[in-house]
Design goal:
Elements (H helix, E strand, L loop, with lengths): L10 H10 L1 E4 L3 E7 L7 E5 L8 H18 L7 E7 L8 H14 L5
Parallel strand pairs: 3-4
Antiparallel strand pairs: 1-2, 2-4
Helix pairs in contact: 2-3
GO molecular function: 3'-tRNA processing endoribonuclease activity; ribonuclease P activity; tRNA binding
Subunit structure: Consists of a catalytic RNA component (M1 or rnpB) and a protein subunit.
Keywords: Endonuclease, Hydrolase, Nuclease, RNA-binding, tRNA processing
């Protein structure tokens, strides 16, 4: 599980990242990132709406898979960004291993990996 110090909190923070951030699309999720003003550790947020799945079990599984992928890659991710992951419908059918590879490739595409 991703430590609390790495999690985004607050509706306004999410809204700010989504309104002014840069988007990168992957097959099963979208990634929106914005440089932090304080330049400290990067923080991450995960959004899985009921449009993706009506079942809470599936939505939570997707959040856990994304969170685990980020936790695994935290040491390699550039500091100083707020990052929001927006799950798509295809995320319900992807395995955790494939999700990890997709997160890695998308972060490379966004130039957020060291």
């Amino acid at each position: 599980m991703l430590a609390k110090e790495y999690l985004l909190s607050g509706k306004k923070t999410f809204e700010n990242v989504l309104a002014t951030g840069t988007f990168v699309q992957a097959e099963s999720f979208g990634l929106c990132f914005l440089e932090r003003e304080d330049g400290l550790k990067s923080k991450y947020g995960f959004i899985v709406s009921t449009k993706v799945s009506k079942e809470a079990v599936q939505r939570n599984r997707i959040k856990r898979a994304l969170s685990e992928a980020v936790r695994f890659l935290t040491a390699d991710i550039v500091a100083g960004y707020d990052v929001v992951f927006l799950a798509k419908q295809k995320a319900t059918a992807i395995s955790t291993d494939n999700m990890m590879n997709e997160v890695r490739e998308t972060l490379k595409k966004a130039n957020l990996l060291k």
